Amino acid sequence: MTMMYRQPIFPVDSSVLRLIQFALHEDIGTGDITSDCCIPHTARASARFIVKEHGVICGLPILPIIFRQLSDNVHVDTLVEEGSVCEAGTVVAKVEGPAHALLSGERTALNFVQRMSGVATKTRTYVDVIEGTSAQVLDTRKTIPGWRLLDKYATTIGGARNHRVGLFDMVMLKDNHISACGGITAAVDRVISELRSHKAIRIEVEAHSLDDVAEVLQCSGVHRVMFDNFTPELVAQGVRMVAHRLETEASGNITLVNIREYAQTGVDYISVGAITHSAVALDISMKFVLPRTL
Hints:
This protein is of the alpha/beta class and 294 residues long. It is 39% helix and 18% strand.
């Protein structure tokens, strides 16, 4: 069992809590009819979370948050470290408490942990492919609406680094901004003028050709240039042009097949939308531990 690359802090904030509460209400609605009909409300139970396929485990810290929305008497015991690579059959967590709380929270808990583990697993596959190079995988804003913090947490568990969280924490001049402003230089000049009192804000500019890269290099105040939909050969030329004066990032049509070729160009970062928008949930189940008298 190998460990994750770094241990980020799980994002326990009001938006995550609201998402959990919404998910529980969406599933339970006016009540868990099945459990109400066949399980005594005084019954207690214990259950195990079992991984059914190879993958990176992510989202274990969310389990107590979910179940304690249903009962203060649920105890969660995690059995592996967050970010561990586990094989099929591994028990990653145990829960014990009122049977109704466990049953009513089962699907919501699994949905969160399966999704986050799927993102972490897919991310790790990309990170592993470029191991030994100086490039780092970045995530994007191509996340499930409402899941931004959890998706980006999961990518870091998988070994990637976060790009900007949203539109508020970094300037990213893309093609539409540049077109609206009349060109790269005009767009950068406007941003610099507006950011005089916010010098901590970083600026990245999207380039679509080597001529664009040359223009970016003439602009002051830019921190990173993105090579958008460049071939690996053009990225390598762009990296040589920049010559470490700015950070460099490759983006667009990056796959597991070609990511190492991009990484070997010397680019600093490679952003991959697929690690969130195309992640498949990891198969995990929750099974009651018997015998239990319900």
